[in-house]
Amino acid sequence: MKSSSDTLQSITQEINRCQRCSLYKTATHAVPGEGNPHAQIVFIGEAPGFYEDQQGLPFVGRSGKLLDLCLEEIGLQRSDVWIGNVLKHRPPQNRDPLPQEISACKPFLDRQLKLIQPKFVVTLGRFAMEKFISGVYISRVHGQPRFITWESNEFFLFPLYHPAAALRNPHIKKDFYQDFKRLRHYLDNPSEITPTTKPNTTQDNNTQNKDDQEKQMSLL
């Protein structure tokens, strides 16, 4: 429950004690998120993986190394951004999050975003994207920013594939790198993003294949 004295530190303490769903029973550590509390850019992934669970930190495995590399390529470091996940505990065997788990964790990330008040929210993977927009395929909207109002906050939403998907598929990896270049462009030119930005809904075989591949990707 949010209080008038909400801080990122107090939310972290709550997450470390959380037993709202059964994931805490199989997790080694909670992964509350970390980074600049005044970040203009927030990255949101799906859930902790093996290495994140071991260290209690987000994106520290192979996916994290790719994320760090891409940040460096556009002139950013981890200290410039904030990174978190939809789920705060690792699902067993990195399986997909269950609806009740997403619901249980929802208030934590909501409160974190309200405190940080970022200008850009970059989602990594379909589960993170679906927190803000639904009814679309990530293969059709990745790299396409949109201005949204969410929970009384306004920011630019920028969907990306999950780094794990990029590591497993060279075509997705190419898109991932190109989308980071687009992100840099829009960070420098936010006025080019309008509330009427719409996703590309053109369907083709490659799009459908990427949709299916993304659904099958588990975190590294």
Task: Give your account of this protein's structure.
- 40% of the residues are buried.
- The protein has one domain: Uracil-DNA glycosylase-like domain (Uracil-DNA Glycosylase, subunit E, 3-Layer(aba) Sandwich).
- The protein is globular, with a radius of gyration of 16 Å.
- The chain contains 9 helices and 6 strands.
- It has helices spanning 8-17, 50-55, 62-73, 99-116, 126-129, 138-141, 163-168, 170-188, 205-216, and strands spanning 34-35, 41-45, 82-85, 120-124, 146-150, 153-160.
- The chain has a 6-stranded mixed β-sheet.
- The chain starts with 7 loop residues before the first helix and ends with a helix.
- With 220 residues, it is α/β, with parallel strands linked by helices.
Strand order, biggest sheet?
1-3-2-4-6-5
Under CATH, the topology can be stated as Uracil-DNA Glycosylase, subunit E
Number of helices: 9
Shape descriptor: globular
Proportion of residues in helical segments = 40-55%
The overall pLDDT, averaged over residues, is 89
The CATH superfamily bears the name Uracil-DNA glycosylase-like domain
Q: What is the first-to-last residue Cα distance? A: 32 Å
Low-confidence stretches: 196-220
Q: How much of the residues is beta strand, in percent? A: 5-15%
| CATH class group | Alpha Beta
The CATH architecture is 3-Layer(aba) Sandwich
Structural class: alpha/beta
* Rg from alpha-carbon coordinates: 16 Å
